[in-house]
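hey can u run this one w/ zinc ion bound, need the structure tokens asap thx
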Amino acid sequence: MMRNSKQRQAILNVLKGTKSHPTADWVYEQVRKEIPNISLGTVYRNLRLMKEEGEILYLELRGRLNRFDGNNKNHYHFRCELCGRVFDIDEPVDAEIDERVARRTDFEVHYHRLEFHGLCIDCQIK
Ligand SMILES: [Zn+2]
Ligand SMILES: [Zn+2]
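ok here u go:
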């Protein structure tokens, strides 16, 4: 754990410092500027660990590269269908949905994910 803490912190700094919801490869390119000898495998491994520990968010979409988010609080996203960029949506997270589903199903609901799809402003202009 101690051995990896510097690498892990560098990866986290990259993720916290961007709003672009980057891919693992992009994170790797950025971290290399600070730690030139870091390997892609190390970056992948750390991202997986941070994801499992809830330190970062992991965004999946079929047919697209998976992306990571340095903001680990639940929040909503907008994904542009043309350019593939992912934006944060400044919309309060609706906790009532969780309660409603929990009541209806008797499941223990921890959170929900919501992703809007459409065209970003740049792509509307094109
Ligand atoms: Zn777009
Ligand atoms: Zn986000």
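The CA atoms of residues 2 and 77 lie 34 Å apart. anyway lmk if its weird
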